[in-house]
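step=encode ok
step=design start
structure_in=
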């Protein structure tokens, strides 16, 4: 029986690639309720994502540009979902 590996969806932007790498490395996660990306603040996962950027950047992109894309995504997201009620809400 011929077995095929499920094909990964094509990533069309460098930002999309960076989000995918960060997610696979465990550095970010998606809010299950609202879909916002959240930084997990895991230094080991961040290191894994930067290592992937340095060793396996997307075709036609330098490792330096790939690492910058990773850093830009991390800088653009927070560690909480803006739509979820905050635990420290003063109400």
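sequence_out=
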């Amino acid at each position: 029986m011929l077995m095929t590996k499920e094909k990964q969806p094509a990533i069309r932007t460098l930002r999309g690639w960076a989000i995918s790498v960060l997610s696979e490395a465990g550095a970010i996660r998606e809010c299950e309720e609202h879909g916002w990306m959240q930084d997990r603040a895991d230094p080991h996962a961040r290191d894994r994502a930067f290592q992937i950027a340095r060793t396996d950047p997307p075709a036609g992109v330098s490792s330096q540009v790939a690492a910058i894309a990773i850093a830009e995504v991390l800088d653009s997201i927070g560690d909480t979902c803006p739509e979820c009620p905050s635990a420290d809400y003063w109400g």
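step=design ok
step=annotate ok -> Strands lie at 28-30, 37-39.
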